[in-house]
Amino acid sequence: MMEFSEFIKSITSEFTPVIGGEYAQEDYEYIDLSQNNRDLLKLEVASSAAFSVFIDEYLRNRSAKAAYGGYNELRTLYNRSELFNHSSSNRNIHIGLDVWVPAYSDIIAPLDGKVHSFQDNSNFGDYGPTIILEHQLDGQSFYTLYGHLSRASLGNLEIGMQFEKGDKIAELGDYAENGDYAPHLHFQVIKDMQGKIADYPGVVRKEELEGYLQNCPDPNLLLKI
C-alpha cells in the first residue's frame, strides 16, 4: 500500500496554488525561521508588527512576492506564548507550511473538498479563525487545515459546504484576529483528524514528532511551490 506522503505527492505533478491572485511559482521565496536563522536574534519576535517588517524586507531584498517554509522546523519564536511554552509541554516544532503574503489575500482550495469544521481558535498565539476541509480522492480520505484567517471568512460557512479546486474559501487575517502574527497562512495536510474538530496541532513536542510527521506529511508535496 502506498505511503500517505507518496499518495499526496502523486496527486499532481504541477504547482498547485493555495493563495489566490497573481502568484506564479517563481514568485515564492523560501524563508528559514528556525533557531538556526541568526537574523531572528536581532528581532523582537514577540511583536507581530516587527515580524511583518522583517518579512517585507526579506521579500523586497529578494524581489519576491511571497515567502514560504516551516515544515518540520524547530522554532524559538513560540516561546512568547503559554499555549506552546509551559512546564508540562514545550511545543516548538512546526509541522505545517507557512505562506507569508499580505493580510486579506484570498485563500483558494488546492483540491475539491467539503467543509469538515471551522472555528475561531482565539488564544494568543493560536490559529485564530481556522477552516478544515475534507477530501476524497482515489478512495483515500484526508484533510487540509487553513489557519490565521480573517473572522469574516467564517461568516457564511456551513459544515459539508462543497468547494472545487481553485474556489476562494477564505481570506487571511491581520494580527488583530489571526492569533497575533504577521499575516500568513498556516497550511497543513492531515491523514487522520484523530477525533479533533476545527483544530489540530500544528506545533508539536520533539517526543511526539515522529507520529505527527507520519500523519501530517510535508504540504509542499502537494503544493509544489
What does this structure look like?
This protein is an alpha+beta fold and 225 residues long. It has helices at 4-10, 48-61, 209-215, 220-223, and strands at 28-30, 66-69, 73-74, 85-86, 89-90, 93-94, 97-100, 106-108, 113-121, 128-137, 140-147, 162-163, 168-171, 185-190, 203-204. It has 4 helices and 15 strands.
Summarize the SSE layout with pairings.
Layout (H helix, E strand, L loop, with lengths): L3 H7 L17 E3 L17 H14 L4 E4 L3 E2 L10 E2 L2 E2 L2 E2 L2 E4 L5 E3 L4 E9 L6 E10 L2 E8 L14 E2 L4 E4 L13 E6 L12 E2 L4 H7 L4 H4 L2
Parallel strand pairs: 1-2
Antiparallel strand pairs: 2-7, 3-6, 4-5, 6-15, 7-14, 8-13, 9-10, 9-12, 10-11, 11-14
The level of helicity is 10-25%
State the end-to-end distance: 27 Å
Number of strands: 15
- The CATH topology corresponds to Glucose Permease (Domain IIA)
CATH-assigned homologous superfamily: Glucose Permease (Domain IIA)
Q: Which H/E pattern describes the elements?
A: HEHEEEEEEEEEEEEEEHH
If strands are numbered along the chain, what order do they take across the biggest sheet? 1-2-7-14-11-10-9-12
Please report the number of helical segments: 4
Largest sheet: number of strands, sense, barrel closure: 8 strands, mixed
Overall number of structural domains: 1
Overall CATH class: Mainly Beta
Q: Assign the CATH architecture.
A: Distorted Sandwich
Query: What is the typical, i.e. mean, pLDDT?
Result: 91
Cα shape = globular
Work out the radius of gyration: 16 Å
Brief sketch in words of this structure:
The chain is of the alpha+beta class and 225 residues long.
